[in-house]
């Protein structure tokens, strides 16, 4: 199997082939997603929400991200694996940023890191890139800054914020980032960004006129039930599938139907 590389992702943009990306946090799921042919797996700090049950992405630690990432890397034969550097492990200190990126690459075997922000984190981005580690940017709604925003609503609706986002995207491209995630911004702005830079733009809640899409795996599989933003398309209802299977199992155990004659030694 031919592994996905940053070079191939760039070629996909160049020839207009869309990039399909999903999050993954564990070995078993990552095997399924990789086997299904996903291009990029993101070990997102959304693990803080969907795996650990925290309200925000802020509490997850670098050690916890490395644990998730190494589980995913072991499962993957083809996909390109990107890992979020968690809150508090890069902001405002480029040598700490570099140290965090190197720990992720060394201890998990992942292929790239992702960081939230533009001009604010320029030095860290440049320093990590200089060490030969590919960096994916992340602009728009950046959940690590949720307490600055105050809400999870659409970002960059106003001209000033839209202009800064466009400038940040160009800056990240100039620094040498191989791709940028745009989260929850107007589709027109996302289109403008995807046209203004030559690197692949991956959207989540950013419309169709970008170079690829990403969703949180638990959301698109219908494992999470309450989270229903407009951009989310559910491809399965695993909440119901699992509930039905577990109810059936409980019934069988209580009814002494499981295990049967063939299921024992
Ligand atoms: O952590 C995450 O899942 C993400 C995606 C939503 C892009 O950063
Ligand atoms: Na994230």
CA-CA gap between termini: 40 Å
Q: What is the ordering of alpha helices and beta strands?
A: HEHEHHEHEHEHHEHEEHH
Which class of the largest domain in CATH terms?
Answer: Alpha Beta
Annotation field: number of helices: 11
Named CATH topology of the largest domain: TIM Barrel
The number of domains: 2
Q: Based on DSSP secondary structure assignment, what is the total number of beta strands?
A: 8
The geometry reads as globular
CATH superfamily of the largest domain: Phosphoenolpyruvate-binding domains
Instruction: Give helix % range.
Output: 40-55%
Strands side by side in the biggest sheet: 1-2-3-4-5-6-7-8
The small-molecule ligands in this entry are: 3-methyl-2-oxobutanoic acid, sodium ion
Spans where pLDDT lies below 50 across 5 or more residues:
none
Strand content: 5-15%
Radius of gyration: 20 Å
List keywords for this structure.
alpha/beta, TIM Barrel, 8 strands, 43% helix, binds sodium ion
């Amino acid at each position: 199997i031919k592994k996905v590389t940053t070079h191939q992702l760039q070629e996909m943009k160049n020839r207009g082939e869309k990039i399909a990306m999903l999050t993954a946090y564990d070995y078993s799921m990552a095997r399924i997603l990789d086997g299904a042919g996903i291009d990029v797996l993101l070990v997102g700090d959304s693990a803080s929400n969907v795996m650990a049950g925290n309200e925000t992405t802020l509490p997850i630690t670098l050690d916890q991200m490395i644990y998730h990432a190494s589980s995913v890397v072991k499962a993957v034969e083809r996909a390109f694996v990107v890992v979020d550097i968690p809150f508090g492990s890069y902001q405002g200190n480029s040598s700490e940023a570099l140290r965090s990126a190197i720990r992720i690459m060394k201890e998990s075997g992942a292929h790239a890191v992702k960081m939230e922000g533009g001009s604010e984190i320029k030095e860290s981005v440049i320093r990590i890139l200089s060490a030969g580690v590919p960096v994916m940017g992340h602009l728009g709604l950046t959940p690590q800054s949720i307490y600055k925003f105050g809400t999870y609503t659409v970002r960059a609706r106003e001209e000033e914020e839209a202009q800064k986002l466009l400038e940040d995207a160009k800056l990240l491209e100039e620094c040498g980032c191989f791709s940028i995630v745009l989260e929850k911004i107007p589709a027109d702005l996302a289109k403008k960004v995807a046209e203004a830079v030559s690197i692949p733009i991956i959207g989540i809640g950013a419309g169709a006129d970008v170079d690829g899409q990403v969703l949180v795996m638990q959301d698109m599989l219908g494992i999470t039930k309450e989270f229903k933003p407009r951009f989310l398309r559910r491809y399965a209802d695993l909440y119901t599938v699992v509930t039905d299977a577990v109810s059936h199992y409980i019934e069988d155990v209580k009814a002494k139907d499981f295990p049967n004659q063939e299921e024992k030694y």
